Each structure stands twice: as structure tokens, then as C-alpha cells.
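FAQ: What does the model actually see?

It sees only this:
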Amino acid sequence: MAFANILLGGVFHAAVLFLVAAGLQLVFGVQKILNLACGSFYALGAYFGISFIAYAAAVGLSPWLILPGLLVAGAVLGVIGPPIERLLRSVYGRDESFQLLLTFALVLMFQDVFRFIWGANPRSLDSAYLIYGTISTRDFSVPVYNLLVIAAAIAVAAGLGAFLQRTNFGRILRATAENRAMAEALGVDVRRVYSAVFTLGTVLGTTAGALVVPTAAASLDMAIEFVIESLFTPCKTLMGA
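And it is asked to produce this:
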């Protein structure tokens, strides 16, 4: 039973990692940018999710709505996607080292913003996610919240696949990723496509951060740790993807 607990815990974290990795891969696949700032989006979602739920609870939101509330918190942060994408336009087509330097600079800037707004101490939602209960049998125990997050990640994976394969905009994304010059020649507004893709990648990252905070504290090191894990432990990314 201990193995089952460890396995489901790993699947939960893999589900969260998948959301960030999907956004990272989507941006890299279409825009050809190695976006280290996805770690900052992850941390931003965590911090904002905590503040959003705290505010919602203060105005009388039912504790049962913590999961939808965190999803909304992650989605709302998509508004930061377009301005950051405009900033990154200067490195389109440049060497990867320029992309790494600029996006890592964004990581450090976001870290200072987190320290200024939320302080240096870790923040958490305590055990609020246990409102959904746990499934227990002898030595086996798993929070229902973890299972809901895993189901949400599976739904996102299925939705992304359907979006890319079955919608006109999804086909435009794939065409732009394959050959930008040809897509532009056929009348595709590549800038609008890039802005939409980056915003979607941002939402995936911030939503992942918001979903993980009920089980883990938000801290200033979240973004840096994610970047290190992404660069030096690719097996985790492969597992999440």
C-alpha cells in the first residue's frame, strides 16, 4: 500500500508538471523560444491562487469551490501573456543563448516582484483541499483533490489534442510551427498567432501553480527550482509529458 501512495503522489506531481511542460512545449514548438520564464508563471499561479482563495473565502465563497476558484485564478493570469510576448519578440530568430538570458532575467525579475508583494516567507492554503475528503483503505490513503487534479490534467491533454487537430485555429498553429514564412504568405497573422500561443502557454503554467498550492507551499524558490528541474532532470519532464 505504501507503494500505491507513492505512485499516486508521483502521478499527481506529474499531472501538474505536464501542464507546465505542455505550455513550454507549445511555445517552443510554435515560436521556437526556450522560455525559462514558464517557471515564474508556475510560481505566480501559486502565489496568486493563495491570495485569490483567501479573498474569496473572506467574501463568503464556499470551501467546496476551492478547485474551480484555483482554475479561475490561473486563467485570469493569462492577461500577462500578451505584454510579455511583445517583450520577447526581440529574440525571435536569435541564438538560443539570447533567449535563455532574456527569459532567465524575467525569472529573476518575477522573483523580486513576489518578494515585494507576498514577502520572503513561504505561503500555503494549509489543509483546505481536504474539504473534498480522502479515499482510505488500511494503509492506503489519497486525497480526493489529488485525483481531481489528475483528472483535470487528463482533460486538458485531451482538450489540447482536439484543439490542435480538429479546429481551424489549431491547424493554423501547426502550419505556423511548420513554416512561418509560408503561413505569412498565405495571409496568416503570425503575430496574433504567437500572442495567442504564448498566452495559452502562460495560462497552463499559472494554472499548474494554482493547482499545486493546496498540497505545497508557494515560495520564492519555486521558479528557480522548476528551471533547474527542467534543465537538469529531463526525465521528469518526459514523465509529465
